Amino acid sequence: MGINQTFPCCGNLHKMLDTTSGLPDNCPVCHAPKEKFAEKDDAIKTPADASALTDLEKKHVPLIKVNKSCSLLGGCVDVHALMGEIIHPMLPEHFITSVDFYLDDQFLSRVILTPEKMNPAAGHHLKVSSGRITVIPHCNLHGSWIAEADL
Questions:
Q1: CA–CA distance, 141 with 74 (Å, rounded to integer)
Q2: Which of 25, 41, 23, 10 is nearest to 109 (CA)?
């Protein structure tokens, strides 16, 4: 994976896996023009050792659950993301501000979370049954983290 661009206006991250297509003309979240994009190599944090997560990493690396049968809408795939093996705090001073979802490196949505009354989780009902889902939560203190799963 080669994520090396960020949209500074809104924090949405653009995955530069296909360098032939280049940057989009506008951010898919806030619609800022590509002239506002800035390169940032450390835009997304990953664990130093995925087999031995620290407590900090356990609170920030999302857990993704894919359910091939939906209880609400027949025929869709449910994707649920929980922020952290150790549930991330949702306090005014430390919380997950948003969660971005990508399918096959294409932006799907941003879920905005607020502290105190929400849990650090988000989900979607997808019309597709295959592909790679990427979840990127943003912590107001510790930045953006990433996890991926196949549908």
A1: 39
A2: 10
Residue 129: name the closest of 65, 81, 67 by CA. Answer: 67
Answer yes or no: are the C-beta atoms of 40 and 12 closer than 8 Å: no
Considering the entire predicted model, what is its pTM?
Answer: 0.83
Euclidean distance between CA atoms 134 and 51, whole angstroms:
19
Helix (H) or strand (E) holding 59: helix 55-60
Residue 62: which domain range?
Answer: 3-150
**Containing H/E element for 55?**
helix 55-60
pLDDT value at position 3? 45
Residue 44 β-bridge partners: 144
93 to 7, 10, 43, 118, 143: CA distances (angstroms): 24, 20, 21, 14, 14
What is the domain count for the chain?
Answer: 1
CA distances from 84 to 115, 119, 123 (A): 16, 11, 14
What pLDDT, in 10s, does the model give residues 63-122? 999 998 887 887 889 999 999 999 999 999 999 999 999 999 888 999 999 999 999 999
Q: What CATH number should be reported for the domain holding residue 117? A: 2.60.40.730
